[in-house]
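Good morning N.,

You mentioned wanting to compare the apo and holo forms, so I went ahead and generated the holo version with zinc ion. This is what I fed in:
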Amino acid sequence: MMQCPVCGGKAVGKIGAGHYFCRDCCIEYRIDREGIQVFEIDEDGMLVRLDPAQIRL
Ligand SMILES: [Zn+2]
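and this is what came out, ligand included:
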């Protein structure tokens, strides 16, 4: 899937196996057998997992 699960945009780059970054909303997401995990990058550069209920897939 090359479309951002948060904004639906296509400014998505692959940064690893099953691991992507959206330049539009500055989130990272990983896709595995359990589904999609979305991470926000906070001001300290830490990844913060977003609650799936807040994401429209
Ligand atoms: Zn996005």
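The longest strand covers residues 35-41.

Happy to go through it together on a call whenever suits you.

Best,
F.
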